[in-house]
Every structure is written in structure tokens, then in C-alpha cells.
Amino acid sequence: YASMPEYNQTGFSTYYATTCRECAAGCGLILRTFEGRAIKAEGNPNHPVNRGKLCQRGLTSVQGLYNPDRIREPRKAAGRGSGNFIDIAWDEALNTVSNLLGGDPKSVAFLMGYQPDHLYDLVKEITDAMGAPAPVRYGALGMFEARATLIEAMRQITGQAGLPFFDLGNADLVFSFGANFLETWLSPLAYSRGYGNLRQGTPGKRGYLVSFEARQSVTSSVADEWIPLIPGSEGVVAAAIGRLIAEINGQAIPTAFATVDLAQAVEQSGVSEEKLHHLAYLFARAEKPLALPGGAALSHTTGLMTARAILALNAIKESSLIRLAAADDSAASLQDVQALVNRMNQGEIHTLFIHSLNPVFELPAALGFSDALKKVKAIVSFAAFPDETSVLSDWTLPDHTGLESFGYQRVLTGSDRPALSALQPVVVPLYNTRATADVLLEAARMRGGALAAAAAYQDEVDFIQQKIRPYIGAGGFYTAPEILTFWSSWLQYGGWWKAQPEPIQVDLKRALEESLPVAAPVSIGRDKFRFHTYPTQMGDGSGANRPWLQETPDPMTTVMWNSWIEIHPETAAKLGLRDDDVVKVSSSAGELEASVYLYPAIRPDTVAIPFGQGHTALGRFAEARGANPAALFEVQMNEVGDLAYGDLQVSITPTGKRRPLARYESREGVYGDHAG
Amino acid sequence: MAEQEAKKWGLVIDLDRCSGCQACVTACSMENNIPFTGEDEVAYGRGMHWIRVQRYWTGAYPDVKPDRTPAMCQQCGNAPCEPVCPVFASVHSEEEQINLQVYNRCIGTRYCANNCPYIARNFNWFDYEIPAPMNYYLNPDVTVRRRGVMEKCTFCVQRIKHGEDVAAAQGRALEDGEVMTACQQACPTDAIVFGDLSDPNSRASQLARSERGYHLLEELGTLPRVTYLKGGGYYGG
């Protein structure tokens, strides 16, 4: 340099394309690295899911990679739950896993998260070869969006099980029934992009958004109309609107809406008849309307019927905006997890492997997972962080974090074309961690026999290469004569997808043809409040150890570093509560304490607590901060076996204590007030 | 000091697209080595966010909704923070025509912050610890500030410089859209557009001319460089 640039260091950055592992959406990342360090996560501009955009969780993934509290060595517990661990060598770890895989196959269980997909596929092959039960796939985000219910509703209506993709960007009217698609629902970046286009994507035409939910979420907060209906009445409202649309259009009333009683719908939902007529008119008049079945609507005992009623609303206007990108029904319901817990309790599970899931934190405490763990002889956690489950495990064999890993993630929803997203390490693994796929392959090889035959892959990369081989000739935007050339493009672009949109349109007609008995919402108990909870930027709670996720203000309350309970100001006045007063919240299942936030945008009969805080482990940034609403959930399920958390009712008792929340909107506090 | 040259970097923020999700806040922090301060400090208003999403509740239940404005340094053409700095730490950069903070001049009088009508400036009250190995992700293009200095949004000047260097090395002019600020790059709804406002054909210029456009506290004569596009209100028109 003749003249050194004023602001820049000399040296070049290297950019790697990979896939975000903070949730299961499978967004493409470009990681900027500099001298072997991962500097910044950015969106992959070519990726069909996020097109260069990125949310808070993805942006802070480097704070996961470089988290000071990571597990650095494989270790075993010196007495389960004692909190003391002894570092072990990987040879010992491999021997252990190999021995455990050799036990009675029926007594071996795998519990996994929604990502990464390649590991799920490998484990499925291994369990099939062993004759063990298939891995159970679950997680808090799926629990809150009632994944299994949505998949089952699609199966019943279209015959194909899978998560639908809703083309928001090309709609002109969106009815969102409890779908907080701007924060966490299914594929938040794909739907946020869609939202931007809904508003300003078509010159001269601004899409209109109506949101139905008891507590105003970020999505409702930008909606043109927010309808705070009685939670659990979403299906009733959808069916009533459906019937009115048929009437407006002069159509025969479809079977699905035949039993609708308008007066009853008004009473059950708290939405006026005038409003229902107005909404039906909006929907009937729209050219490309869309109705979204969100988690808050499906998480009631009548969730499946609600999902069908909302999807039927799309059918009545013959929507072409709903597509099935990929069939996949690997998401388990809470019922499946409960079956596993029952087997654990009966002593049928000798070995439990856990990956990408923190069941002790994420599952309803009332499910009794922690107690059931005591009946399991050997627990192996592959967690990279000392989470609540890994500290109760016998062995923690840390996997690499997402940014140090190979893999792939199927794009189930969020893309207008078939896509498979690629993961590759952007830095050399920091610590003595090992890819779980490699651990399992090696352990299976050591076992020999059928297991070794099933695991006849050299290593994780070989497994991935064999799995993506069919994509060479599948008409993607690049191709190659053989796998290694294909592999280099795969890594360079961060995955494989088609050059053009290729929708698998679904026919929802059947939703209209069958009768739909939508039941009334549960009535509210004396001195009780309806309880709502929702995942935030902390995702399934694993984000709580990222300091910048903690210090990014919540979009609605601007609270940072803690959790709070949202109470309508009128309700709070009746209870004699002010901002920052601490209340005890109790359900039949448990109780917790939280500071009050006077929230003007919630039904007066409803209270809400965000999900993601209240960790007792997970490192310095997460621990002893806020409360975990999973303590309150009763094990009550809908028809598909998803948690009916929307039907939960709680009582509120003032404690007389006060603990100020750190909020961006006001500055209050005394040093030490936020401790503990 | 008022502007002399024509080159004008500017931001346009479309509030009709903005969902208020805060991805811009996180993106800015990760790009610009902004320290996290912890619950106590941030409760006192000593958080270091260079961009914040202002949120005011409007209306009464059930017609209540938050009114949101992502706000950062408006890079005033006529900046109130500049003339009050006794040591010329708050200066107008001649080259990029934006307002910059010279950290090694700053002596921490905080006059600039007092005089900023947009509350866009943050003061480092402490040296904030970023525990190892978390310091690995620090951006080598951005100075790590220490206790006692003022800081604020720079329109990602390191990215402007980098873009200009790359274009100069290839012997061409900088293209519109080539330089993206971190907030724009992350914005999930594509609400933020950065560009050269002196080029009437740049995307930012075109958007800034929209009839929905307005500036924050325009009447103060600060010549803000951030244009907001009003949200909501009409349908099908």
C-alpha cells in the first residue's frame, strides 16, 4: 500500500457458505472469517430461504461458537447429577458408546432435535439396523407451533404429510390465526421477507394483514387489524368466516361450514357479528387471500379441527399460495415423547442418547422427564454446552457447534423450490469435540456385525456425500460429472436447489367436503387467567447463553436480560399491581415468580410469559435469569398429541416484592436490584 | 460544520416493511464490536446500542399498537454534536461526508451527546469485558473502544471504505447497492436501503423521494441523512 486505507486492517477475509443451526428453518449463512477466526455471520444472498437476510439468532451464532462456557472435552459425571465431571479420552468415550449400542436394541432410545437432518438420517439407519425404535424428534419451537398437528392436518386433507409453505409475498390479504411468523413460526426469515413483499412488493398494491390472537405478538403489532379473540375460538371464527364468505359469494355452503351457528360463534369468540361480516367481506373480496394456522391457534384440545377449519378457509378461495415443498413427518408429538417417558419410567430404556435438544428445560416439567431420567441406566448427551440435560447425564460427548460442523438440512417450508442446505465448518474446531456422526459410525464399526454393515461409511463427510449423490442429476442450478466436483459446488454455494421455483401445489378441496365439528373454547375458571406463552429471540431457550440476544431488547416490551409477565393495565389495577411488582403464577402443575409488565395489548383475562429464560444451567449468561413457563404446563394434549398449552389457566398472587426489569423504554433500577 | 461536497451517503427506512424485529440492532452490534453491558447497566440506559427501535404504545385496547421507529445517528449535514466538541473528536469526514467520532481525540466531556436531538450517542462508562475466547469474533476493521469515549453509528464506514477500495483496485466506480450497512444486510423485511443520495438514480435516492418520506426533527435544520417512509394507512390503492 502506498497509502494505507485509514480504517482497514491489511489482510483478506475468507467467506464460507454454510447453514444456520439456531433453528430448523435451514437459512443459508455466509460466514466472514479472518485469520482463522469466525468474525460475522451474514445471510447467503443466493439461498432460497433467506436471500441474504438474517435474524438475531443467526447473527449471534458466533457467540455460541466462542462461548466461554462450552464443554471442551468429553467427560463423564462423577456421580450423576453431582455437578462434578471427569474429562475422559475419546477412546474411552467411543468404547462406552459402542458397548451401549450393543445392549438390547429395544432398550436403546435416541431423542433428537429438528436439526441437523443428516444426523437424524444416520441415526435412523443405525436404529433400523439395530432393530431399535426410530429416534424421537422434538423441541420447544415445534411444541409452540404445534408442528405435528399442522402436518397431520395436511395429511388428512391432501394425503401428503408435510409442512406447508405459505406464499405470503404474493398474497393481497393475510389472516394470521396465532401465527407469529415474524418472530419464530416455521421459517421466520422466509415469512419476514414475504411480509415485506406483502406490504411494498407490488407497486400500487399494499397487502392487508389481519391477526387473530389473545396477546399481541410482533406479527399482530404490525397487522392492520388485531382481533383479540378468546383463545381457543380460532376454529369457530374461521368456520364462521368461511360460511359468511360462501353466503357473500352466493355459493352453496360447504359441508365443513354447514353446522356454523353465527350467534354461537360470536358468543364463543368474543368477536362481534359486525366484525365477522367485515372480515368475511375482506376475504371474499380479496384476489389472493391466505389464512395461516399458527401455533397459538392449534395448541388447544381442539387444535386439529382448528387447523382444518383454517385450511378450509384457503380452500374456499381456491388458494394457489399454499405449497408442499417437501414431505416430511419426522416431527414427533408430545404424545410420542410421553410414550418414551413412560417406557423410561417402566425401566424399559437402558440407554438414552440425546442430541440438539434440552428436554429437561424444554419439555413441560409435569411430563416428569427429569424423574424418568433416574430410571435410565446410561444417559449420553452430545451437547456442546452444559445445558440442564447434559448436567444430568452420565456422559457428555460434545459435538461441534454448528459453525464447526458438516451436515445438511432439508428445507421443509420457507422455500418456493426444492432445496437442501449445506453445512460446512467455517473454522477449525476450537476444542476437543467430535462430530456425533463420526462417534456413532466409529462405535458401530467397533461393534461389528449388522451394525457395522449398516454404518459402512468412512466418516460423516462420506455419509453426506452418499446422501447427496442423487442430487447430482436432479436438475439443480449446478451439476457435475461426479461427486467430488459436485461436492465443491455444494460447499461453495451452501447447498443445492433448483434455479426456478417449482411448487408442489396442494389441493385443499377435501377440507371443505368433510364436516367440521369445531368445539367451543374452555370457559375460564373463577379467579383464573388464561395463560399464553410464546418463544422469543431466545428460540427454544438455547439462545439464552448469547449475551447479544440477551441485550437485544424484546420487540414488544423492550425488556432485556430477563423474563416478565404481561398483564393488562386494567387487570393489574384490580389486583393492585404496578410495573415491576413480583407475582407468583401458579397452575395445577407448578408455580413461578416473575416481574409484572403492564402490557396494554393483551386481553384483560389473559396473561403471558415469554419462553426461553429461567435456566438453571447453560453457562454464565443464561443461568439464574427469569423464569421458565414450562414449569406451569399441564400435560394436556390435542387430538394429535401436541401440547394444548393454550388451554392452560393460572392464578396470580402478589408477593409484595419488587424487582425492576431492564427496559429500553424507561431507565430504572438501583445497582444490585437485578441480581438473583 | 455544514456540508461542502456533494457526495452524500444516506439511509432510507421503510416503516411499512419494518416489523420491529430488532435484527438490525443485533447485526449492528456484531459488526461494530459493540460491547454488551449486562442487565444492571442497560437498565440505567447505559446500553451501547448504536441503533435502537423506538417503541411507543399508541391507542387504547383493543385498538392499541406500538409505533416503532428504528433510530440511529442521522448523520446530519448540519450536525449539532460537532460545534460543541472542545477537542474536535466529533467531526465531519470530508471524504465520506458523514459524521464520525475520533476515538483517540475524545476526552469524554459528553457535550456532543447532550446536544444530539436524536439521543444517538453512547458513552463508554466502563471497559466492558468480553470474556475469552469471545473476543475472537471482534471485527478487525473496527476499533475496540475503551472507557471514557463517546461512540455512535458510523454508517458502517469500514464497509464504505472497503467497497471503495475494491472498486478502485478494479478501476471502476462504486456501484449502487455494493456497499451495504450491517443493519440493511440483515433486515429480514428489506426495510432498510443504503446508498448514495447524490446519485438521483440510486435505489436509496428513488425511495427517499417517495411521497411517504419524512425526516426526524426536520424542523431543527440538522439536515438528517436518514429518510423514513411512513407505514400503514392505505389498501389496494
TrEMBL record, chain B:
PANTHER family: PROTEIN NRFC, PROTEIN NRFC HOMOLOG. The lineage of its organism: Bacteria, Bacillati, Chloroflexota, Anaerolineae, Anaerolineales. Pfam families: Fer4_2 (PF12797), Fer4_7 (PF12838). One of its GO terms (molecular function) is 4 iron, 4 sulfur cluster binding. This is Fe-S-cluster-containing hydrogenase components 1. Residues 9-39, 64-96 form the 4Fe-4S ferredoxin-type domain. Gene3D superfamilies: 3.30.70.20. Signal peptide: none annotated. The keyword Metal-binding applies. Keywords: 4Fe-4S, Iron, Iron-sulfur, Metal-binding. The keyword Metal-binding applies.
